[in-house]
Amino acid sequence: MRILFIILFTVCSSTLLAQQATVSNKTNTGKYVLVIHGGAGTLNKSQFTPALEAKYKSGLDSALVVGNAILEKGGTALDAVEATVKVLENNPLFNAGKGAVFTNEGINELDAAIMDGKTLAAGSIAGVRTIKNPITAARAVMEKSEHVLLSGRGAEAFAAMQGIEIVDPSYFYTPERWKGLLRAKERDSIDQLKKASQTAYNDEIDEQRRKDKYGTVGAVALDTHGNLAAATSTGGMTNKKWGRIGDAPIIGSGTYANNKTVAISCTGWGEYFLRLVMAKSISDRMEFGGQSLTLASETLVMKELPALGGDGGLIAVDKNGNIALPFCTEGMYRGFIKKERQGAAVVKDILIFK
Ligand code: ASP
């Protein structure tokens, strides 16, 4: 009996030591990764001047700098993705927060989600009109309520109770997005006329519609403690009606993080991402099918998404720090910043087109 106890004790304590070694190794590596996107649908290379390109790249860069400062100091992936998305929400260039697109009624309705890969805790808000930084409200839902998804007026009341900044809906007005709504409405009425007169569907109009419609911002991160997190924020699709909600605030579709596999934030035609349960499908392929991040994400974004008729892209970082940024549109505003280990150089890249 005594011998059995000694053996058991030795086995248990060495297992414990091995586990501790794994954890502390991870804590000491200093390895971290942050990947961001600013949407995949509003791009047209021919209309892009060098000055405009520089403006977008600098907007993405400011977000990476903020997230990097958190991760470099050993901060959490969760703090990094929230802070990074907040910078993008405050930048009118991107379709989230201040740069949100208009609904058919001429208002802005915002969606956002955040997820912690360590605990699988998640928070989302949908269809809010007065919350300056929806991503912060989503985090409050995760941490300060017993719910995962709050919508509309209730979500706004909850955010106000949490002391989150509330603004007048006019804060979200930007002339660029207003013009986008007018263009979308004009195209819709041309479509009606064409359908009524049985004229062949005009591909050019369809193409322009796709370009005007989307945009979203997102961030995914792996921190130096080995934890993953994902965050997404959007104004949705231009000219949306009837309280339409896309994939961004739906956990598992537009946003997902799981320390066992991957953290993902999506952008594109939300209805298709919802139907594919995009982010969780990729995670499941990795967890249960043994697929690599590249294979799983390319299959979903480059094959299954276009096969259904949708388009868009996503950013992802897996538990080992591998990244993927697939998209099947003309471009996707994107960037990453990472460090392989303590003392290594920080590597950064920012891209827009293929
Ligand atoms: N996926 C977003 C939505 O459908 C839009 C986008 O990412 O461009 O609401």
Distance from first to last alpha carbon: 67 Å
Name the assembly state: single chain
Sheet with the most strands?
8 strands, mixed
Name the beta content range. Answer: 15-25%
- Total domains, how many? 1
* Named CATH topology: Glutamine Phosphoribosylpyrophosphate, subunit 1, domain 1
Specify the overall morphology.
Answer: globular
Strand order of the largest sheet: 4-3-2-6-5-1-11-12
| Poorly predicted runs of 5 or more residues | 1-25
Quickly count the helices.
10
Summarize this, please?
With 354 residues, the chain is of the alpha+beta class. It has helices spanning 2-29, 50-72, 77-89, 134-144, 152-161, 175-196, 203-213, 270-276, 278-289, 293-308, and strands at residues 32-37, 110-116, 122-128, 149-151, 217-222, 228-234, 255-257, 262-268, 312-318, 323-324, 331-339, 347-353.
